[in-house]
Amino acid sequence: MIRFERVSVRYEGTERPTLSGVDLTVPEGELVLLVGPSGVGKSTLLGTVSGLVPHFTGGLLSGRVTVGGRDTRTHKPRELADLVGTVGQDPLAHFVTDTVEDELAYGMESLGLAPDVMRRRVEETLDLLGLAELRDRPIATLSGGQRQRVAIGSVLTPHPKVLVLDEPTSALDPAAAEEVLAVLQRLVHDLGTTVLMAEHRLERVVQYADQVVLLPAPGAPPVMGPPAEVMRVSPVRPPVAELGLLAGWDPLPLSVRDARRGAGGLRERLADASPPEAASVPEPAAPPEASAMPGAPAPVVAARPRTGRFARLLGRGAVARAAPVADPVTRVDGLGVRRGRVEALRRVTLTVAPGETVALMGRNGAGKSTLLGALVGMIEPTAGSVRVGGLAPARTDPRAMVRRVGLVPQEPRDLLYADTVAAECAAADRDAGAAEGTCRALVSELLPGVGDDTHPRDLSEGQRLALALALVLTGRPPLLLLDEPTRGLDYAAKARLVGVLRGLAAEGHAIVLATHDVELAAELAHRVVILADGEVVADGPTGRVVVSSPAFAPQTAKILAPQEWLTVSQVRGALEAGA
Amino acid sequence: MTAAPAPASARPLRRALRAPAADRGNALPAGAWWLWALGLATAASRTTNPLVLGLLVGVAGYVVAARRTDAPWARSYGAFVKLGLFVVALRLVFSVFLGSSIPGSHTVFVLPELPLPDWAQGVRIGGRVTAEQLVFSLYDGMKLATLLICVGAANALANPARLLKSLPGALYEAGVAVVVAMTFAPNMVADVVRLRTARRLRGRPTGGVRAVAQIGLPVLEGALERSVAVAASMDARGYGRTARVPAAVRHTTNVLTLGGLLGVCAGTYGLLAAQGAVYGLPLLLAGLVAAMAGLRLGGRRSVRTRYRPDRWGVRAWLVAGSGAAVAAAMIRAGAVDPAAMRPGVVPLTAPVLPLWPAAAVLIGLLPALVAPLPPSDRAADRPVRRGKEQA
Questions:
Q1: A2-236 and A290-303+325-547: same fold?
Q2: For residue B239, which residues of chain A lie inside 8 Å, CB to CB?
Q3: Do the Cβ atoms of A77 and B235 come within 8 Å?
Q4: Which fold has domain A2-236?
Q5: Closest partner residue to A77 among B72, B202, B236, by Cβ?
């Protein structure tokens, strides 16, 4: 269906080609998964199928890509529109109209299909993707999973033979991701659509793939084969395959079900060992207050409260001033936040001790980001109280808050204003009142090998996250918040992030991360808090909360249940100790 | 609900008369709402009677309250009302400070007058302020405000993007560009808000000129990136696909469109210039016909079809017709009873409500009865009320 013949792509201004020597054939009706570390040209390879590379992006394509017999060199993307459906990384950037039904019809309108055909296909697609309830809704009001499904539906209606998807589940919570994958599965099985998709979250998708194409390194030729074989040699692997390799299972299992069948022996070997109590919170005997940290400025006692004249008249400002005792524990008590009529958070109570890592989980829109926003002071509570280092974040001067709490937002790019990494660092030192070079030292530690003159925009997703993290850490905040930090990160970048965050927790930073990534939570968190509809529905040690939940359990826990192992590294440690 | 059962034949009739719940299939064409609103606006331009104007505003406001959706564009009504109030206030302020040509004898207060040189004769700053001139400006401002509110009502009731979709095929691509541009502005505002809050994370104050200056560049960059992404998506989904058209048709299209436009220009010039009115009108008409034919022929290049275009049904005619009826009645009333429609300012008289024109204005309420009822998300916020309806 799709043939790549000696394809290489080189963008202007780069010394080596992004892709080279790609010789592949994707057969009709298969679900082919494209894997590889960040920056190996996965998106570029996908772009060549729809013709957007090079017709839209520029660059030089040599060799030949044919889709259903049409050569992309001579056919522009619009002339392939009836054959190839493309959904990019951000579904919001994909939408042209403003309601669901119009969006589904848009592609067919452009192709000039007859009105009765359009009508029928829209209805079919609404049913196929379970969107019938949403047909009249403005797209702006949809949740992430719904948007992704509408985006897929909008390219399905012209009945393309090929579907190209770039990270369709990365931004979704586990349940929404399964929704989308079920739809893809159905397309492949029922309609015979050829699906080519790139995805970092292999634990979610690898079991559905018929073939896997691995791009091992930038410019290296791809390896294609059955998933189990490719996973053996791949630098990126889901936990289930990792565990399979560790236990020496053959064939390598790709789904939890396969792995459980073969896991009897491993469970026996592990029966004597017990999961390490890594999940215990370090003793709060040495509370790492801001002043105790090297290079940290003395705590700001007279924080200038950002209160109006009225509040001062009422004496509220005085309250903020009268609480200078730096309480190292972050306390959220009965917090409520309203947005218009919507209650985003209700009666949330939470304490985070120094050195503790807490993972906030829950579906998209459950209030995770709102809670982080309230902790950092971007959102004013409508009820209850938030105390970070003894201060109310929303009523304290941002310049004082920056040394108490730092947030790495979902889009790390929002934090970056300057043209170069060096300028960003200088600004961060000034903002946080830290000694010159503090930030640069952090960047070198987190992001080795990035030059001073690099433009933040040229960094990869993972590098940008590391830079934002360094900027936030410049103020040495005792409380560090991360919103969805693993979006778009490959396993290697994730492992580096885990290492950095573990080190910070050991130094005494309290860390709160909002994430959909159950593997990350299992790896890092001492405690997991699950939010639903703005309320806390579970709060407890990671092992207890996560193992019992079908949606939030990591693969290792599912495979080895009822034993409570959370990560492959725990199992590896236990096996080595036993050996 | 009905204690006395209606006769069997009346029940289906009553059911047919009740407005259905709005969905895609029975949505009123955007054009019908605009015709209704323009009818009200025409009516407003024909009177300065504050009572009639107030009635018109009331009618427009009631229909908006009864039939608007929760969509983002529906929230613009409030902005138009505020703009209208601002216009009234501005008109009064100008009248107070710059004086007015309205002669009057009831002095309200006297401002110190700024002496001006001879060449500025006829211009006055400060001086005597009379009740007559204030009342006149108030009436005038109210008229403008009512026009604005009528436009706001149309904007709130009809999705502006749908209005653009009814363009002829040849202009479709330009229409899409406009629609995409219209979504650009709200997205940019959202970006500004997000980046301003993100500044707080770096420990910088979120307000002030410097904050805006510093986030300006990232906002523009973000907006540009988004436009490129949308353009890529549109291209990949077949935007701009064209059918093969014979060269002869293409050339005819160009000749017709260009020639038509030239004809329109020349004809207009002929009409406006002192001499040449003889050939002006025919030339203008011929040019218009040629240009329309060119557009029509140009539409052949586009392979596009339309998905579920809005249908002009009875309800659409009723909505558009009610607006036209109000306009017609007001124009007639202006001819029959000018004194009531333009209450005297010199001497000051209290305006009276002319009975039958006022009744005619109420025809404008018809859409609140016949237009399909949009599903209300607001009902979901009031579980008590919903419960009552269920009971």
A1: yes
A2: 78, 96, 110
A3: yes
A4: Rossmann fold (3.40.50)
A5: B236
